[in-house]
Amino acid sequence: MTAILKNFIGGEWVDGSGVTKNINPSNTNDLVGEYAKADKAQTEKAIAAAKAAFPSWAQSTPQVRFDALNKISLEILARKEELGRLLAREEGKTLPEGIGEVARAGQIFAFFAGEALRLIGEKGASVRPGLDVEITREPVGVVGMITPWNFPIAIPAWKIAPALCYGNTVVFKPAELVPGSGHALAEIITRSGIPAGVFNLVVGSGSVVGQTLLDHPDVAAISFTGSVQTGRKIAQACVLSNPMKKFQLEMGGKNPLVVLDDADLKTAVEVAVNGAYFSTGQRCTASSRLIVTEGIHDRFVAAVAERLNSLSVDDALKAGVHIGPVVDQSQLDQDLRYIKIGQDEGAKLAFGGELLKRENPGHYLQPALFTEANNNMRIAREEIFGPVAAVIRAKNYEEALAISNDTEFGLASGICTSSLKYASHYKRNSESGMVMVNLPTAGVDYHVPFGGRKGSSYGAREQGSYAREFYTTVKTAYTYPG
Ligand code: NAP
Ligand code: MG
Questions:
Q1: How many domains does the structure of the chain reveal?
Q2: How far is the CA of 130 from the centre of ligand 1 (A)?
Q3: Residues 233-243, mean pLDDT to the nearest whole number
């Protein structure tokens, strides 16, 4: 029996009032760990601890914050193989992807360590004689963080690091499906020298722990990443709360990749296969709509199917595996439901979509490629969040652009072309937050803003120095020296 891993509240590791089991999706007989579930009262304790710790952390020096964030970064990076293995084991992305995500988390903490030293205000002349005006940024207060299961360490990192960097205190709720990486990150944070109460971990369900964060008047802001459906509930709760909370929402996508006749076929195939299927297609930035012009369409479809046929779908921890399992039974059911919907709508299942049996019992699904799809089909409009993509035929660039923008989402988009004219036009006219040219829609840098438009995002951008818009509030001070 392994020990039940605890929550971290007010500087102490505490037992919960229930247990959540963390199961390996590559082998459902493998129990990754058991985690104490916090209840409403414990979540309230965590909020109280974060509130009590706020005034002093808000006044801490940039050096203190740099030292803590830098220490966290160094430990994450030093342990990236081990933590990457834990991540791949609990979430099902491949080991190299897991290690890559952990390294990313370490880099994010390093970036925000530096940002702590770069928060400089402005001072200017007043329009009134003899006065000074100063503009400074102050932390917001207690920030509640609600994160999804598909990036169990990178997303928590890109919320927690800027929150601490700018002097906020944190109550962090990881997704109950994958608490392992969040717990490991919490342990590392507790060793960084930050005072008790500044950072709190509460594992538990959205309906209990998440809802308590939303309802509590002492939580000043909520940073959320997850589905549109939950995002809407968060927005409503934040507006109805008294005082109203600041909030940012990063939600779903139905990201288009346009492939033009003049694209380099090999590049386009790699970009499409990576963007649509790697990480089992479980990325908010996955390319699920492949919009392909007439002249390259058949060659592109044949080459993608051939490439998919060469990929190995198996246990995420096995060497050489390209695609791991789907995260759990309910996500697998959703993927299969959409594969059936696509067929019923009249799209052609050109490759895959079958359940696969492997050595261990796991949620293995062969990547699915639809062709003859149109943009009105549900498989082209609704986020599936699995290894499923649909090819939509377009007459020319103009039609491809129109299809690309005809969606309620707007997170990422991409184009494969060798034409500077079309690439430039697409960058300007694609209605998304992140545009890629000859690159997969998924895969971003950490020092620049991340986020979308339309139904994909709401509120200030995450990551890079833009993160300060959410994690700080601006003060304008006037002085009359007398
Ligand atoms: P989800 O079901 O919306 O859950 C996200 C988080 O919200 C989880 O921690 C969940 O808790 C919590 N939650 C659920 N109901 C809640 C409630 N009533 N009050 C407060 N919190 C609540 O999303 P998911 O299935 O984990 O993740 C997949 C989704 O995330 C996809 O739509 C994907 O596109 C999106 N995503 C977006 C981005 C982006 O940056 N745009 C990045 C990654 C993922 P529990 O699940 O623990 O109960
Ligand atoms: Mg969920």
A1: 2
A2: 52
A3: 97
| CA distances to 61, 110, 133, 360, 390 from 67, in Å | 10, 10, 31, 44, 47
- Among 44, 91, 115, 284, which one carries the catalytic annotation? 284
Cβ 159 vs Cβ 65: under 8 Å: no
- Are 269 and 232 part of one and the same domain? no
Does 247 share its domain with 366? no
Our answer on whether the CB atom of 334 is closer than 6 Å to any ligand 1 atom is no
Q: What is the pLDDT of residue 482?
A: 82
Residue 131 falls inside a structural domain = yes
Candidate of 43, 227, 470 to mutate for ligand 1, largest count of ligand atoms within 8 Å of Cβ: 227
Mean pLDDT confidence for 431-437? 98
Query: Can you count the helices (H) and strands (E) in the chain?
Result: 15, 21
Strands 472-479 and 132-139: antiparallel
Do the domain assignments include residue 400? yes
Confidence class of residue 1 from pLDDT cuts 50, 70 and 90? low
pLDDT the model gives residue 398 = 98
**What is the model's pTM?**
0.97
232 lines ligand 1 (CB under 6 A): no
Mutate to test the pocket of ligand 1, among 101, 108, 149, 208 (most ligand atoms within 8 A of CB): 149
